[in-house]
Specification:
Layout: H1 2-34, H2 41-52, E1 57-59, E2 66-70, H3 76-83, E3 86-92, E4 95-100, E5 105-112, E6 117-125, E7 134-138, E8 144-148, E9 156-168, E10 186-193, E11 196-207, E12 210-221, E13 224-234, E14 238-239, E15 243-250, H4 258-272, E16 278-288, E17 291-298, H5 302-310
Antiparallel strand pairs: 1-2, 2-6, 3-4, 4-5, 5-6, 7-8, 9-13, 10-11, 11-12, 12-13, 14-15, 15-17, 16-17
């Protein structure tokens, strides 16, 4: 009787130990994702609600302005904001801009919690003049415009800011760069931004270990050419335990939704890097005005390479 009881206790102990071991391995592998927002319980609860309640969007417990959706549904936030009386007005990177009929503004910022789930933070503002994301300036051509105080983009810093806006006479034309002769140093393409067609030219130059990109957006308005230009600096590679390399590319498909563009690039990178020692970092890919950026990590140690093989 005692032997039977002891054997049963050993089985329970082994089972508990196995569960603890599996949980420990799981947490060590995915802790950066699970704990990226601190306490993971609100996110875990929201994922369960999305799975079993039939809802498309759920509010995170303990938060007034944070919501979660499945990542595959990129337009659900538009529909949700419409129920709150807002209409979509534009997008800048991970920021989505809305305005109500009463003049109230709202900014919704997007972040991937994982490959399958997205987090949305909604900031509402009753007075558009006090919106601290934007500022107003008048240039030497007496052109008054608004621009964001800072970019909602990762791994990119501004060099020339605010943007330079010039008004010129002439006819709009855009000689796009054919893919077969394009180079990273000079690319011209047409893009749709907020239902307006722009001719976008990007010139890349390298200096002292950095990459500088001069962007020029040209469009026609009131029979005049409007040119908007600014210079961005791409982040340098980080060399520590691993090598981390930022990247920036332009989406060649005009009019593609930002979430769809981010998802397609992540899937392409996953497939392309499968048999290499490089991986897309957990913070993923961000999108702004047709430009996608993110970071790749290179693994060198034997331990890290073994993990890649097992995964």
């Amino acid at each position: 009787m005692l032997l039977e009881h002891s054997s049963k206790n050993k089985k329970i102990l082994l089972l508990v130990s196995a569960v603890i071991l599996i949980a420990g391995v799981f947490l060590s592998l995915y802790s950066s994702v699970i704990f990226q927002e601190g306490n993971p319980w609100p996110q875990i609860k929201s994922i369960a609600q999305l799975k079993f309640s039939g809802k498309n969007i759920v509010q995170l417990s303990g938060s007034d302005n944070k919501f979660m959706t499945e990542s595959k549904n990129g337009t659900i936030i538009h529909d949700f904001m419409k129920t709150k009386g807002y209409e979509f007005t534009g997008q800048m990177g991970s920021g989505y801009f809305f305005k109500s009929l009463t003049g109230q503004n709202a900014v919704v910022t997007h972040k991937y919690y994982s490959r399958h789930y997205s987090l949305w933070t909604i900031a509402e503002n009753n007075n558009s003049e006090s919106n601290n994301l934007w500022t107003t300036i008048t240039n030497d051509q007496s052109v008054t415009f608004q621009y964001p105080k800072e970019l909602l983009a990762k791994y990119v810093s501004v060099v020339e800011w605010p943007p330079i806006i010039k008004i010129e006479t002439g006819a709009y034309s855009c000689k796009t760069t054919p893919l077969e002769v394009s180079s990273m140093s000079n690319i011209t393409s047409e893009r749709m931004v907020d239902d307006r067609t722009y001719c976008v030219n990007i010139k890349n130059e390298g200096a002292t270990g950095s990459v500088y990109s001069l962007y020029t957006y040209t469009t026609i308005k009131s029979d005049e050419l409007v040119k908007v230009s600014f210079t961005l600096q791409l982040a340098n590679p980080e060399i520590d335990k691993n090598v981390v390399v930022p990247f920036t590319i332009q989406d060649s498909k005009s009019g593609r939704e930002s979430l769809a563009s981010e998802y397609d690039l992540k899937q392409l990178l996953k497939k392309t890097l499968e048999n290499t020692n490089w991986r897309l970092m957990s913070d993923g890919v961000s999108y702004r005005l047709g430009v996608l950026n993110g970071r790749l990590k290179g693994y060198e140690s034997e331990e890290d390479l073994l993990k890649l093989v097992k995964n």
